[in-house]
Amino acid sequence: MNDFSLEGKVAIVTGCRTGLGQGVALAFAEAGADIVGVGSTILDETKNLVEKMGRKFVGVQADLKKMDSIPKVIDAAITNFGKIDILVNNAGIIRREDAIDFSEKDWDDVMDINIKIVFFLSQAVAREFIDKKTGGKIINIASMLSFQGGIRVPSYTASKSGVKGITMSMANEWAKYNINVNAIAPGYMATDNTTPLRADKERSTEILARIPANRWGTPEDLGGTAVFLASKASDYVNGFTIAVDGGWLAR
Ligand code: NAD
Q1: At what angle do helices 19-30 and 44-52 cross, to 10 degrees?
Q2: Lower CB density within 10 Å: C or N end of the chain?
Q3: 140 CA distance to ligand 1 centroid (A)?
Q4: Is 191 in the pocket of ligand 1 (CB under 6 A)?
């Protein structure tokens, strides 16, 4: 089972102040990795939890809506650890409005963070992997809306369908450099992202009734799949989006 170990690895995890990103950072730390955490605000809680496990944590405060965040993230990893082994593109936002009233700003903000920066940060990290001839792992956080249409979230659906698509296209071009690009599609998870959905009694009852596991997912539920995709155990897995959804897509 040593193939699942992340001992000595360095992982960049975006959006790990809270929620699923924090869950992934903690699972990686438990598996042995040091973490470069990226967020728009301070990441103290995640830093403390990672350090309690005896791993190192470097926080980078950067706005992932902007392209100039990319060199900051790469520099922080190289300056502090001298290398990158794993990138998790987790940071993401959602805007809810009827499609008929949806604004250009709600389209652009979501697309900038959820798909544009996912591609260009992956490109920057892949260049490192190729230059240093190390290979590496890229994991994108997709969604059920990489497979389905959703309701009142058109830019989110467009971005997450795009994440599934570019996961395949990047995998096709970079597998020959020993770079594995894959994605995880979380189901309905209890985080800040879904607070409004869980507060809406009618929608939350409908959603829960459709989940075979009969519960919302948690950040811890993502850990095992993330560690697998970050580890040697997944060296022959390329371009696939794995659902961690309590059976939602099986219905
Ligand atoms: P969350 O709101 O708790 O976490 C999102 C993280 O992204 C936060 O840490 C936030 O600070 C960071 N972020 C947002 N905008 C940023 C910016 N401009 N610059 C830097 N960081 C920024 O929500 P979550 O549910 O943990 O979401 C994590 C990922 O999982 C997202 O990509 C989301 O779309 C996806 N996802 C969530 C669910 C769910 O049910 N919660 C389901 C499917 C996919």
Answers
A1: 20
A2: N
A3: 12
A4: yes
The secondary structure of the chain in percent helix, strand, coil, rounded to multiples of 5, reads 50, 15, 30
Q: What is the pLDDT of residue 193?
A: 87
Q: Atom 23 of ligand 1 has which residue's CA nearest to it?
A: 193
Note the Cα 105 to chain centre separation in Å. Answer: 23
CB distance 63 to ligand 1 below 6 Å: yes
* Residue 150 Cβ < 6 Å to ligand 1: no
Ligand 1 nearest atom to the CA of residue 189, by list position: 40
Q: How far is the CA of 100 from the centre of ligand 1 (A)?
A: 25
What pLDDT tens digit does each residue of the chain (251 aa) get?
799 999 999 999 999 999 999 999 999 999 999 999 999 998 899 999 999 999 999 999 999 999 999 999 999 999 999 999 999 999 999 999 999 999 999 999 999 999 999 999 999 999 999 999 999 999 999 999 999 999 999 999 999 999 999 999 999 999 999 999 999 999 999 999 899 989 999 989 999 999 999 999 999 999 999 999 999 999 999 999 999 999 999 99
Task: Tell me the domains of the chain and their CATH numbers.
Answer: 7-245 (3.40.50.720)
User: Atom 12, ligand 1: which residue's CA is nearest?
Assistant: 15
Closest C-alpha among 113, 114, 118 to residue 139: 118
Phi, psi of 29 (to 5 degrees): -60, -40
Which residues form the catalytic set? 156
Interval between CA 80 and ligand 1 midpoint (Å) = 25
Instruction: Of 118, 85, 91, 93, give the one whose Cα is nearest residue 14.
Output: 91
Closest CA to 33 of 74, 85, 80, 72: 85
Is the Cβ atom of 59 under 6 angstroms away from ligand 1? no
